[in-house]
Amino acid sequence: MARVIAVVNQKGGVGKSTTALNVSAYMASFGKRTLLVDTDPQGNASSGIGIEKDALKYSIYDSIIDEVPLTSVIQKTIIPGLDIVPATLKLAGAEVELVSALSRETRLAACLEPVLGDYDFVFIDCPPSLGLLTINALVAANSLLIPVQCEYYALEGLRQLLDTIELVRRHLNRSLVIEGFLMTMHDSRTNLSQQVVEDVKNHYGSKVFRTVIPRNVTLSEAPSFGLPIIRYDPKSRGALAYEELAKEVLERGEEK
Amino acid sequence: MARVIAVVNQKGGVGKSTTALNVSAYMASFGKRTLLVDTDPQGNASSGIGIEKDALKYSIYDSIIDEVPLTSVIQKTIIPGLDIVPATLKLAGAEVELVSALSRETRLAACLEPVLGDYDFVFIDCPPSLGLLTINALVAANSLLIPVQCEYYALEGLRQLLDTIELVRRHLNRSLVIEGFLMTMHDSRTNLSQQVVEDVKNHYGSKVFRTVIPRNVTLSEAPSFGLPIIRYDPKSRGALAYEELAKEVLERGEEK
Ligand SMILES: Nc1ncnc2c1ncn2[C@@H]1O[C@H](COP(=O)(O)OP(=O)(O)OP(=O)(O)O)[C@@H](O)[C@H]1O
Ligand SMILES: Nc1ncnc2c1ncn2[C@@H]1O[C@H](COP(=O)(O)OP(=O)(O)OP(=O)(O)O)[C@@H](O)[C@H]1O
Ligand SMILES: [Mg+2]
Ligand SMILES: [Mg+2]
Question: Which of B224, B227, B233 has the most A C-beta neighbours within 10 Å, making it the best mutation to test the interface with A?
């Protein structure tokens, strides 16, 4: 059965899409059958892997709202072993549509259920909010990968995120755990980055991944070519860090 | 009557809070009576100006949902001439609560109406989404300041934002205009930054502010001290850029 990991943080621009996309690509390169689920109406994970969103017949919206089977929505990507459930702008309407819908928090979990046997890993990219799309991801996930940008504002938001996770665990998904906190966009030239890393390590100890993702321009260039970093520049510091991270996620799984 | 400017972009982490906070502080330093309205449940603009959120009796939530007069919510800040309407985590519930509320899109406009005569400028910081809190800001605003991070993903989101603005203009706020597109976190060492600036200028011409905000670590350090950049490091490149921007916003107003 697939391990379902949601990449979540309501703080904007902390590296959720970059992480979900690149960890997925490395997992697939290790021979693990991997599914990337994009639940952000911006669809950055989808375009980052080269999906032509205007040409799609179906996207995640059709599964969550109209119960189109996920097998009809799943697309192959340029990376062998990595499939994607793409998102388009249509998803922007789902937050409001879900508010008064039946089983509004468990729609994504229900969509994923029939395909879990086909994959080893499922990574879910979340939008920058704690609305119903993110709640759906928290309910569908076994564990959470929380990117934390090495900036002050990123620290502030963790309290709210952890409170929400606790609520979901108590009322909707008892087995939900934190896979780990991932430090992102670390700039070794600034004290701020170092202070934030130390602060998070002091608070969350071994829950913080050993791997730290450096700020590296190749990671922000790659999406404009629709390529994950493993294809765009596999020897870059950004690529090597995500490769390390994927190995660490694998290791943590074996420990359990 | 105050000019009401909403700082908006659903893409996360593009510099909305940093812009709203620092432009407001410089406006106040030019002798303009300025109000900063925080409509993001993360409350980054509020903590960035040193507000102790746990000690607040009222916040924007109380006005939007329970119609507490804004005059009871407004706080003075450390900057003479700059007041703030703070946001706290309580606001996170408002998105869902507003969905079925009466006049759900015009609540913020109604709250602001009685105090517009007390200010020359009102800047509204928005959350990274196009939900009801952002819609409320679009309805309350006269014009929009759109921060665009010098990154590929930031370009992708502009189409969706402009479509939403057009919808609001047609159905809720006929006089809404774009004040300008502000290029943020520009890194002169990378080609990517330059390409994105040229791309935005090609598309939006004179609507792009002359001022470009450089990536500058002092801007990300200042919030940890609860200080706007004018107090933290007024001679830094980040500070000088926001001073220029505030002058440009003033100039644009006089041209009309
Ligand atoms: N380690 C890194 N080094 C340099 N740039 C990065 C890095 N990680 C991400 N980026 C860039 O920073 C920006 C923000 O990253 P990304 O879009 O992945 O964050 P996000 O959390 O998914 O944002 P949102 O909250 O809008 O969904 C993007 O332009 C991305 O290309
Ligand atoms: N010009 C800049 N140079 C360096 N760092 C910056 C700059 N502008 C903003 N930052 C930092 O980048 C991060 C994102 O900025 P900010 O929080 O203002 O964006 P935002 O659009 O308000 O994010 P959100 O979408 O979460 O509301 C913050 O940690 C901020 O301190
Ligand atoms: Mg994203
Ligand atoms: Mg913000």
Answer: B224
Q: Give the closest of A43, A156, A187 to B44, CB-based.
A: A156
For the segment B225-230, the average pLDDT, to the nearest whole number, is 98
Give the strand pairing for B121-125 and B3-7.
parallel
The pLDDT tens digits of the residues spanning B143-154 come to 999 999 999 999
Helix, strand, or coil (residue B34)? strand
Q: Judging by DSSP bridges, how do beta strands B143-149 and A82-85 pair with one another?
A: unpaired
A15, A184 Cβ separation under 8 angstroms: yes
Indicate the residue type of B187.
D
- Whole-number Å distance, alpha carbon B18 to ligand 2 midpoint, is 6
Distances (CA, A) of A153 to B9, B97, B150, B226: 17, 26, 20, 11
| Residues with Cβ within 8 Å of residue B66, at least 6 apart in sequence | none
Tell how far the Cα of A102 is from the centroid of ligand 1, in angstroms.
34
**Mean pLDDT (whole number) for B110-119:** 98
Query: Judging by beta carbons within 10 Å of its beta carbon (0-12, 13-18, 19+), is residue A90 exposed, middle or buried?
Result: middle
Token digits for B185? 């976190």
Adjacency order of strands within the sheet including B75-76:
B75-76, B82-85, B34-38, B121-125, B3-7, B143-149, B177-186, B208-214
CA pseudo-torsion sign B179, B180, B184, B186: negative
